[in-house]
């Protein structure tokens, strides 16, 4: 098989095989045309990647020699939709080369932006453009670019800084030779990063097989769907409020993080499942917490305009008994054996009629499991000063601004004895009961396993999740610090979730058949800053991203897989699947997927303070963190009449959170 070299951009992957280059647009967007026309206005990007130079990202647009000496301004958006907040540039003069350089000083690094409008003015003082190009009016044509992540060093370090950028490569004067030389430097820098791939430390006796890895993920995972009422104004009629249930919006993947029997008594009548998913999957879990806690957790509630928004019902889905976990070739599909069985905690309703064709629905009413109740969403998790430092005030134009990492934990109360009783006469409920038992058993096994032996990047405590993240290890190595129990890399990042393929949500895995998988997962271009989260738990809220994420080759599971658990070759959970580079083909797994790390053990000026999303109680390691799964659960369980009061003694925290 030919070895492929992938040079990453946002919105564009350049996959080089010998001397042939193939361009693939990511994020499910239509194929991009670099030159577009409207009113005789030709516009093209000089570069699809912008470096930070003297505090600015300089967007260069070629608008042709016919516009030399004129002025232009640009509208940018983080998404190519009218609902996405926009940024308007100041006017810039078109040079003698027909190129205008427009500086932007407050863009997120490592982010994708879309040019949604270009206006040409005959004079700097004109208010009415002589020519315009509106990209929102034609979704088949897009101009998009990526801001490179900043790197503090002015020369490349021997070991690339995690998430480092290319600001030491100065923007050239715009003649052809300089542009070619500049692109060559960018390419060389990317190749240098891509070629830096430190070896993983190995203990073969503790590694698990591929089949065991995917079986573990299957046993631990659920497909989840939210049926909510958002109470937002109709965009076509401002006097009309939507009071209808929006079914299965969104659907995603969740996994059992922890669980608790009522009062810590095993096999009691009630059981709390603590399920983890992405914050963007949980975004429509409106007001899923007692209102009396709003002072403590304002970010978990809608603002007044949307105060009636709520979850109406919830869907919990599981794989079929004999789902296929074997690798298949990218571009092909699993059969119906990998479709799902859905359980909805409501009565049969016509609102779900459209879903019947693609989903096996079972309406079980409210008496088996509850709607989700919020425990933790990774929004504003630090003290106020550090939260505010990380909020992008300029680029975040929502009326409520937060910081966010793409992670959430919610509780579902299961009437366990009722479920057991009904499972004796209902084979589908029997499968649900067995799946819940397998998920709990997986956690119990992990607690014992990771305490018994020393595993790389785990501290042998009761929390069976990553203790020391890889980007922090890279940074420590650059400073001459190395821990013998910490590996800089992993050999595999196994991912399994429930993407929607051909309009049907199915069980799917990464690493398709025939993959040319690298020996080690991370290279110098793998790590990047967390992406912004749009509308988390409120229509008019936006969270600026923080923390480290990482790309994984051959892992572009399609939409619906968001929230999937990621484990390494030892079975250690290391992160949560949150980002996909897609060309719009829902069966193509050959591109990269990205995941969010569960922990960051060192402070980083750009990515934020040290934090642990599961347990941030260690004030020596995480002095600036105020909220995590454990911290929130402890506080909630201590409140009078709290629904979590009897469920604080969990599998992980046996003495109580």
Automatic annotation (TrEMBL):
Ranges that cross the membrane: none
Source taxon at top rank: Bacteria
Name of this protein: Putative lipoprotein
Domain named DUF31: residues: 211-578
First and last residue of the signal peptide: 1-21
Alphabetical UniProt keywords: Lipoprotein, Signal
Region span, Disordered: 149-172
């Amino acid at each position: 098989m030919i070895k492929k070299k992938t040079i990453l951009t946002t919105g564009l992957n350049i996959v080089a095989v010998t001397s042939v280059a193939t361009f693939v647009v990511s994020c499910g967007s239509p194929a991009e045309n670099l030159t577009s026309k409207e009113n005789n206005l030709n516009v093209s990007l000089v570069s699809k990647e912008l470096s930070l130079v003297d505090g600015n990202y300089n967007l260069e647009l070629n608008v042709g020699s016919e516009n030399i000496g004129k002025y232009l301004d640009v509208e940018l958006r983080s998404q190519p939709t009218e609902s996405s907040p926009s940024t308007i540039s100041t006017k810039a003069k078109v040079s003698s080369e027909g190129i205008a350089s427009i500086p932007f000083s407050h863009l997120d690094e490592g982010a994708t932006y879309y040019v949604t409008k270009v206006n040409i003015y005959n004079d700097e003082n004109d208010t009415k453009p002589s020519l315009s190009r509106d990209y929102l009016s034609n979704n088949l044509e897009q101009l998009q670019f990526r801001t490179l992540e900043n790197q503090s060093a002015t020369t490349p370090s021997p070991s690339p800084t995690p998430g480092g950028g290319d600001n030491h490569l100065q923007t050239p004067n715009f003649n052809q030779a300089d542009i070619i030389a500049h692109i060559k430097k960018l390419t060389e820098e990317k190749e240098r990063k891509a070629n830096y791939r430190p070896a993983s430390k190995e203990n073969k006796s503790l590694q698990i097989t591929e089949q065991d890895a995917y079986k573990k993920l299957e046993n631990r995972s659920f497909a989840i769907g939210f049926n909510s009422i958002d109470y937002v104004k109709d965009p076509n009629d401002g006097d009309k409020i939507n009071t209808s249930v929006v079914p299965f919006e969104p659907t995603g993947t969740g996994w059992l993080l922890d669980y608790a029997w009522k009062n810590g008594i095993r096999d009691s009548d009630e059981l709390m499942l603590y399920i983890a998913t992405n914050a963007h999957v949980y975004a429509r879990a409106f007001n899923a917490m007692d209102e009396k806690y709003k002072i403590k957790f304002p970010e978990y509630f809608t603002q007044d305009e949307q105060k009636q928004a709520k979850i109406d019902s919830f869907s919990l889905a599981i794989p079929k008994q004999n789902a296929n976990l074997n690798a298949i070739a990218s571009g092909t599909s699993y059969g119906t054996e990998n479709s799902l069985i859905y359980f909805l905690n409501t009565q049969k309703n016509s609102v779900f009629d459209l879903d019947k064709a693609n989903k096996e629905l079972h309406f079980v009413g409210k008496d088996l499991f509850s709607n989700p109740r919020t425990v933790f969403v990774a929004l504003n998790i630090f003290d106020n000063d550090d939260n505010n430092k990380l909020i992008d005030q300029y680029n975040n134009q929502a009326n409520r601004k937060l910081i966010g990492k793409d992670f959430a934990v919610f509780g579902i109360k299961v009437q366990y004895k009722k479920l057991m009783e009904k499972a004796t006469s209902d084979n589908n409920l029997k499968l649900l009961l067995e799946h819940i038992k397998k998920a709990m058993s997986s956690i119990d096994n992990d607690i014992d396993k990771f305490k018994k032996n020393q595993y790389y990047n785990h501290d042998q405590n009761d929390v069976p999740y990553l203790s020391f993240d890889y980007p922090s290890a890279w940074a420590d190595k650059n400073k001459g610090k190395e821990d013998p129990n910490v590996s800089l890399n992993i050999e595999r990042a196994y991912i399994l979730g429930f993407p929607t393929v051909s309009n049907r949500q199915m069980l799917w895995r990464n690493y398709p058949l025939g993959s040319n998988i690298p020996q080690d997962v991370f290279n110098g271009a793998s790590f990047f800053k967390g992406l912004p989260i749009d509308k988390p738990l409120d229509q008019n809220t936006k969270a600026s991203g923080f923390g480290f994420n990482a790309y994984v080759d051959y892992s572009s599971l399609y939409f619906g897989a968001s929230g999937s658990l990621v484990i390494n070759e030892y079975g250690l959970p290391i992160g949560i699947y949150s980002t996909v580079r897609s060309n719009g083909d829902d069966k193509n797994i050959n591109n990269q997927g990205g995941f969010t790390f569960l922990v960051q053990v060192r402070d980083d000026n750009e990515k934020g303070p040290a934090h642990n999303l599961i347990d941030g109680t260690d004030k020596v390691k995480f002095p600036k963190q105020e909220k995590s799964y454990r911290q929130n659960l402890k506080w909630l369980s201590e409140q009078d009449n709290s629904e979590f009061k009897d469920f604080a003694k969990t599998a992980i925290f046996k003495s109580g959170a």
